[in-house]
Amino acid sequence: MAESILNPSTRRFLGLLVLITLAALALHGLIPAEHPLHLSTYTLTLLGKYLCYALLALAVDLVWGYLGILSLGHGAFFALGGYAMGMYLMRQIGERGVYGHPELPDFMVFLNWQELPWFWYGFDQFWFAALMVVLVPGLLAFVFGYLAFRSRVTGVYLSIITQALTYALMLAFFRNEMGFGGNNGLTDFKDILGYSLQESRVKLALFVASALALGLGYLACRWIIASRLGRVCVAVRDSESRVRFIGYRVEHIKLAVFVFSAMLAGVAGALYVPQVGIINPSEFSPLNSIEIVVWVAVGGRATLYGAVVGALLVNYGKSYFTAALPEVWLFALGGLFVLVTLLLPKGLAGVPLRQSLAALRFNGKEAGV
């Protein structure tokens, strides 16, 4: 089993991830700030955000590429993990807020809340917040998946329901009476675990934590794929009715993998929030979930590493084009998805394979085979 998990592609991916992380740390800490090769704290934070997106893409690839579930609602699990971390960060502000209340966040004081809502209890402790980061998305995925998979909702109908789920959550979190900051969300964070979020070493630690989470998440997904569960997942993707016929409880298999994927997305959201400094209901937007699917499609689904590559490339392009040509970014994203679907159905990860097969066919013809 260990050999199948640490296959050549996994070793190359992990090696490259370690190399990139060490290179980023070296360029940031060892190169003088005035040197052109110096990696600024801003760029390091941007890379950390990209790594969080890569972990989110990994979660989507697990259920879409290997289980055949096209989820258009994983942005909801990402946002819930982010809100859980944001609630902890808000509780850490205390009397340093604008209104100086020792317990209530500023937005609650502004809205004349008299006491802290019950669902905010415990978020002054990091361990509790870390637990909620995985439990809340996991619980939502369990309830939703149990009802959907038991009813045998599949295909485009399941995709539409997942999109409706995240849209409903977005509308709910926009309401001030929900107690999550309404339209403005949660922001103005001060510190984490007693360390200021403005310190360079904290930003450095968050970047390393994002890289570590991506590596561990990749290994966990690879372990699932290499196990018997992974083989059954692929069978369900290819022919669900046959798997049911031979006696497998397909709904249980779908539910287990779907819940794990949601937890992985929650971890990505929790690491994302302290690096960007804000979490608001726009993270629940259905457009965000569609973008995640585009990342996976561009990189190549059912490869894991392809999802990571797609997330990194598309988000780098987004950062560049939204600054250089902001009015054409959405058109470029839509055009990219169409081109990849038509010309590269297996994504960028499938390009080397297609070239190898073409070379084999060419050599075969030359040899007269």
Automatic annotation (TrEMBL):
InterPro entries (alphabetical): ABC_transp_permease, ABC_transptr_urea_perm_UrtC, LivM-like
Subcellular location as annotated: Cell inner membrane
Transmembrane intervals: 12-31, 37-56, 63-85, 126-149, 156-174, 204-221, 252-272, 292-316, 328-345
Alphabetized UniProt keyword annotations: Cell membrane, Membrane, Transmembrane, Transmembrane helix
Record carries keyword Membrane: yes
Principal place of residence: membrane
The keyword Transit peptide appears for this protein: no
UniProt-recorded name of the protein: Urea ABC transporter permease subunit UrtC
Organism of provenance: Balneatrix alpica
